[in-house]
Amino acid sequence: MSLLSFIRSSDQQPKSLAESISLALLQDPHLLNELAESMAQGDRVEKGILMEAVEFATKTTPSLVNSATDLIARYLDDAAPKVRWEAARIIANVAGVFPTKVTSAIPQLLLNTKDIGTVVRWSAAYALAEIAKHNLKVRPELMHHFSHIIKTEQNSGVRNVYVRAVKEINNSMK
Question: Rounded CA gap, 143 and 166, in Å?
Fold first, then answer.
């Protein structure tokens, strides 16, 4: 059964569906090969469930998306906010394992720091912070952006993601 067929035939709530799909992905990583097709054919809700499932799975097994990091990055500018924020969280989850692969996501993540949605901005902050922590090459540029965003971000929760990242990075350099 395909991922979309599973979603469409299930009577589970979206969160439970995402958890079920996450477990299936962890048990059979080949299901990830279906992700591109399912994302192309799914509606906003279905795409959100799929991205949330991948996010859940990458919390414990970031290497799951080794060959799919570029695919995930493409959804950072999706029309659906949930897809954008889940894609950013996946990037954050895998930044420690694939610090150079995720750099292609930086331009879109920086655009998402100006999104009207607080969760999209928070997720972009989380992803950018994780990239800066694990990639020394792009760290100086990101730290420059962080100092600007800290001054302009209105939401304290989002701003604090950057503040904590800057403190952690500065402490690690001592």
Answer: 7
**Domain of 139?**
3-172
pLDDT tens per residue across all 174 residues of the chain: 689 999 999 999 999 999 999 999 999 988 988 888 999 999 999 999 999 999 999 999 999 998 888 899 999 999 999 999 999 999 999 999 999 999 999 999 999 999 999 999 999 999 999 999 999 999 999 999 999 999 999 999 999 999 999 999 999 887
The CATH number given to whatever domain includes residue 112 is 1.25.10.10
- Interhelix angle 118-134/81-94, rounded to 10 degrees, is 20
User: pTM above 0.85?
Assistant: yes
Q: How many CA atoms lie within 13 A of 165 on its CB side?
A: 30
Give the count of domains, the chain: 1
116: DSSP letter: S
